[in-house]
Amino acid sequence: MTKHNSPVEPIKQPIQQVTSNLWFERLIRLGYAAKGLVYFIVGLFAIQAAIGTGAKTTDTTGALQAIITQPFGRFLLSIVTLGIIGYVLWRLIQAFFDPENRGQLINAKQIARRIGYACSAIGYTGLALTAVKLIMGSRSNDDEPLEDWTIYFLAQPFGRWLVALGGVIVICVGISFLFQAYKAKFRRELKLDEMSYRERTWAVCLGRFGIAARGFVFGIIGIFLVLAAIQVDGSEARGLGGTLAVLAQQPFGSWILGVVALGLIAYGIYSVIQARYRKIANL
Fold first, then answer.
1. Would the pTM of this model clear 0.70, i.e. be above it?
2. Cβ-count burial of 142 within 10 angstroms (0-12 exposed, 13-18 middle, 19+ buried)?
3. Phi/psi at 158 (nearest 5 deg)?
4. For residue 91, pLDDT beyond 80
5. Residues in CB range of 25: below 8 A, 6 or more apart
6. Tell me, what DSSP letter sits at residue 249?
7. Residue 278 main-chain phi, psi, to 5 deg
8. For the chain, which residues make up each domain, given as ranges?
9. Are 150 and 228 in contact (CB under 8 A)?
10. How many CB atoms lie within 10 A of CB 183?
């Protein structure tokens, strides 16, 4: 007697594929939430420093250290690390493919965008590795990683020009963030139809304020890199934490730092909104 295949079998593989894609999408969304938590903590420390509570400004590594010191800190940091890994994978997909159908035509804008995605993936890979070290019990280096890398490159042939170029690129990234905040084109990436009017309003306001604050900080980081290249002094370079500390030392520094800190907190909240409402392409 001939054995007939079950009618369920032909759709078994597509169902498994959909399930796999769903879990990967959840991992990406966890990545946006983890990123948001990190920036929220950085902003929280900065606002405390601005109002004079005794706290010091910190960077993303300091945010991870703050997480692990909490009750169940290793467990919480493990979840954050998993999210950061998901975010790295998403950035790599954006760098090498076109999951959001932005256009297959390769032009200068497309190349710049993909290079930006790749650089973002590299940066968050470093953050994920730092998180893994903290989970395993290793102490994080308190030195500025950007300063260490700047000193290394300045010691290389043509290193001065490479550092200057890097500074100019970071300044351009900061300007692009400010432009994004002004144009609010990030709205295209959100499922606005699933939001209420109030939710849309808050999402756009937080996105604009947060992205602008991040762009402002990136611009200053780039300026410090250019100064380090001009003076051939790697100690002039400043990362996120160092830049926030410098802002606090300026005239009206507490006010400036306070506004930037609120912006970073806004960016953290906006990233959490992205975790819920970001359009994720079918992978």
1. yes
2. exposed
3. 60, 15
4. yes
5. 280, 283
6. T
7. -65, 135
8. 21-277
9. yes
10. 10
